[in-house]
Amino acid sequence: MLFFKLSGFYLFYFAAVGVYIIFLPKVLHDIGYSPTEIGIVLALAPLMRFATPFLFLKHINLTQNLFKGILALSVFSSFLFYFTIYDFYLFMFNNAILGVCLSVLLPYIELIAIKELKSLYGKSRLFGSIGFALISVVLAKYLSEPKIALDYYFVTTLLTAIIAYRLLKYDEDDHKENQNNEKFSLLKYWPFWVSLFFMQVSFGGYYNFFTIYETTQGVSLEMVSYLWVFAIVCEVAMFYYQAPLLKNNLILIIKISLAITALRWFLLYLFPSSLFIAFLTQSLHAFSFGLYHSAVILFLYQIYQDKKLAQQFMLGIAYGLGGFVGAILSGYIYGEYLYLASSLLALIAFMFLINHPKDLK
Fold first, then answer.
1. pTM for the whole thing?
2. Average pLDDT in the chain
3. How far apart are CA 267 and CA 23, in angstroms?
4. 346 Cβ partners below 8 Å, 6+ apart?
5. Residue 4 and residue 17: Cα distance in Å, rounded?
6. Is residue 183 predicted with pLDDT exceeding 70?
7. Domains of the chain, start order
8. Dihedral of the CA atoms 261, 114, 22, 154 (nearest 10)?
């Protein structure tokens, strides 16, 4: 039963992420937002994901009651999208609130999944990829006005919150042990954290502008949705079969994934109008997200005693600060050299691990 509850959580959570990543930039573009404004708006939620874990480091205890409040706030924030989307500043504030919620929601549930499912984690997590793929296909066919995207986002967020609430009973300790926060250190494994940051910065052009980038090359929105789905299919296959790989050297797996990601973005830069190359680079999502993500969270689970805070900081530094800088940077760079810059950023992430192997043993 727990497996199915967690799978349902991932299904709806990443369906909501799919609406936000694939279609919200297009919606904002269509209602008059500039590329720079799109980058700024979409950077607010990642910025809050980065800032929020520092509050839990010393000032806030993540109890189940607080988590329930976060769930309610996430639903309310998604509902406010209907009223704030046409005002740049109100929508910025709305996305900031959402970022606070997301900085807590996913890490909290991820730790339950890792602790309870163990080797079945990948098979449960793949339902998130399925949710992402399904929403990309369905919404591409029916997105005729901005409100439709907002409807899908609100419903998927609501279902995510309901399932997350039902998963609370599997978190037995209620975070009362204070988790030895004084022992938590980012500096001890600093090359890893810096690499994590640059890797996610490299995804800024992909998450925020891939749909726009491909449609300006003459690819239809429906075909772009198939590109997203193909990436998810490859990611699902990786999640399903990755367990034996993750029993090996996790840092080596992370390095390989980083190198493949640098190649992925470089190919998009070299062949911007090639649909074949677009599909080829999407197949590499199995490594640059599927395998990389699992190796990272397992590595953190092994090296830190405060496992919940480690997962929060992973989301905060990678998808938070890295996502914030990536969104802002991609908004300013957007154009011919967007994916060349993305490739260089992924290469920097790779080099930080190559130059500091002893720090990570």
1. 0.77
2. 86
3. 24
4. 198, 199, 202, 258, 261, 262, 264, 265, 288
5. 20
6. no
7. 2-360 (1.20.1250.20)
8. -170
